[in-house]
Each structure stands twice: as structure tokens, then as C-alpha cells.
Amino acid sequence: MRYAAVLEGAGARALPPVEQWAPSRIGDIDIVIKADGMWFHEGAPIQRAKLVRLFSTILRCEGGEHFLVTPAEKLKITVEDSPFLAVAMKTEGEGAGRRLSFTTNLGDVANLGPDHGLEFRNSPSRDWAPYIDVRRGLAARIARSVYYDLVALAEGRQMEGGEVYGVWSRGVFFPFADADRIDA
């Protein structure tokens, strides 16, 4: 699956209300979302991009576990890192008025701001990786190349007795780290 094809069709789409569904049939399915964003079924990559996008719309996270949910059943899958990978970033404006939007490998768009936060945590592939909340508690790890673009927008700000670097988006400042941790 190529990211360029997904980005062409990126945008808002109606999502099924998986958080409202409480199916009685619960089980497991041998689907794995790898740390690089690729989906596998029974050890083989799922080649049909539309099928992967469909599955992503019925994905739900509960207590750190991931499930594909329909009104009839709930099937546990394995997610090595996060279910999505942020592969593109769009920026508009400057300073506190800046608006940052991230597009995932599956076409979801998350607007960094009060409803879609940014956090840093350890990932399986590297320490201290950035993640953005995409929807319903599902996160996207920000791809390294996109993270470099994000860091290029960083500015220093005094917070809690020290200077930190971070970015503004939709009126919220998202700190990266203490200034001492940023290499000049």
C-alpha cells in the first residue's frame, strides 16, 4: 500500500459508531498492525488498501487492547506500536495562530489542538517518539521525516520555571522537551 494514493483521497469521512456497539460474540483474529503501519492477516500483508481502510474504521481501543468491532462481533487484533502512522503534515499560519494537521497512512486527518493532543512516549522502534491522537483514543506515531518538519517549527517558551521547545496549534502550545534536552 502506498501512502501517496491514500493522501490523494484523504479527508473527513463518516465513521461507524463502534463505541456504541456491544456485541455478544467476542474472539481473536490473526491480524497484526506492524510498527511501520502495514497490516497483516495470518502472516501475509493485506494488499487491498480499501480493505485496510475499511478495517481501520471499525477499530476500537479498550484498556490498551485493539479490536475490530461490528454490531455482531468484537475481534481482538495485535498492534505492535500504534494503529496509524502520520505520514504528512500541513501547516497554516504562524505563532499561536498556527494550525497543524496530520494525515495518516490510512487517510485520517487529525488537527493538532484541544481535541487531538500530542504526546511523546517510548516506541518499539525508537525511544521518545511523538504521537498524535487521531480518534477515539487511537493514536498515530508521527513518521520520522514528518517529525523533522515539526521540529523545524519549534520555538522556545517559558513554562513551569524553565524554557521548553514546542509548537503552537489552534491556540494550544505543545511542548517537546526542556531546552536542555534539545541538541543545538
Describe this structure in words.
- This protein is mainly β and 184 residues long.
- It has two domains: 3-79, Roll (duf1285 like fold); 84-179, duf1285 protein fold, CATH 2.30.270.10.
- 13% of the residues lie in helices and 46% in strands.
- It has three helices and 15 strands.
- The chain has helices at residues 3-8, 49-57, 144-152, and strands spanning 25-33, 39-41, 44-45, 59-62, 65-69, 73-79, 84-92, 99-104, 109-111, 118-121, 129-135, 138-142, 155-159, 162-169, 172-178.
- The strands form three sheets. A six-stranded mixed β-sheet has the order 3-2-1-6-5-4.
- The longest helix is centred in the N-terminal third of the chain and has 9 residues, at 49-57.
- The radius of gyration is 17 Å and the shape is elongated.
- The N and C termini lie far apart (37 Å).
